[in-house]
Amino acid sequence: MVEEDTMRSTSTQSASLEDRVLTETVNTRLLLRPQIVTNVKDPDAGVRVSLIHQRKGTKEQWEDIPSPPLSSIKAGEIAKLELNSEKTLRLFDELKNLFAISESGGVRLGENVLV
Fold first, then answer.
1. What is the pTM of this model?
2. Residue 10 CA: distances (Å) to CA of 38, 76, 111, 113
3. Block means of pLDDT (10 residues each) for the chain, length 115 residues?
4. Residue 72 is assigned to a structural domain of this protein
5. Which terminus of the chain has a smaller tally of CB atoms within 10 A, N or C?
């Protein structure tokens, strides 16, 4: 089966791709939210990601759980997001695919379906 992905440019230097679900239960899921970027200082660094934890009720829509920025953490505090080996492998596979997209043409203007 051929996988397709939709890339939508957000500027001349960045484009968003569809969220990737790393893990999902009935009421929570962990997403990888990727962007392809043009990085003039380091052309090999063409992928930017956010890990998003979402929650929903049984009859509700998925919503991002708000969280404070990591810059608000004070000395002695910790923020931790642990991934088990299965989630880590899924993240690794998704990152390989994203870097392949970045290396195969980078940011494309408009909306593009990638195969």
1. 0.83
2. 12, 37, 10, 15
3. 83 95 91 95 95 86 83 86 92 95 90 86
4. no
5. N
